[in-house]
Amino acid sequence: MLAVTHRQRHCQAGVTLLELAIVLTIVGVLAALAVPSIIDRWQRETVELLAQRLMSTVSLAQATAQRRHVQTQLGPRENASWATGWALTELPLAAPDGAPSSNGRKLTAVALPTMPAVSLTTNLGRGTLSYEAVGYSRMSDVNGATLTLTCGRHRRNVVINAAGRPRICDPATSRGRCTDTADDDP
């Protein structure tokens, strides 16, 4: 009698080494192509975030001066250069003889990140931006001030007009309206 034998088929489970190498190569190439755009986006978002924080700090300086009837001062962090960041200080009322009674109370300080590298430049030099108790700015330049944040190819200007109002400006899209002498109201 003929014996019927059943051949059992074994299903292959898993992948071969060649298939794994091909998939890893494709994933590596795609990741390498994506890295420049990821870094570019990171730099752009960092500059935008810091510009918003700087504008908020300037607005806080003006609002604090108005509401508390004190003088506020925005300047380089820890009396270094603007490249290290910025600090907002509430200055004390002057003593009866006209001299300040102390150094003042620091309201906020922001350090610039080291990664990605961000630079902050200003036309104030090492100077500061101050607001009087009524909320008006005290600047030696009657045209205003410009603080520029740069990271990679991305740049944002925080432009402060002579009255002390800040605005954010993108030099790449503003068509020459990104300076402190430009008209603030479009």
UniProtKB/TrEMBL annotation:
Subcellular location: Cell inner membrane
Membrane topology designation: Single-pass membrane protein
Biological source species: Ralstonia mannitolilytica
Biological processes, Gene Ontology terms: protein secretion by the type II secretion system
Family as reported in the entry's similarity comment: Belongs to the GSP H family.
Domain General secretion pathway GspH intervals: 51-164
GO CC annotations on file: plasma membrane; type II protein secretion system complex
Pfam families noted in UniProt: GspH, N_methyl
Highest taxon of source: Bacteria
InterPro entries for the chain: N_methyl_site (IPR012902), Pilin-like (IPR045584), T2SS_GspH (IPR022346)
Transmembrane segments: 20-39
Protein name: Type II secretion system protein H
Keyword terms of this UniProt record: Cell inner membrane, Cell membrane, Membrane, Methylation, Transmembrane, Transmembrane helix
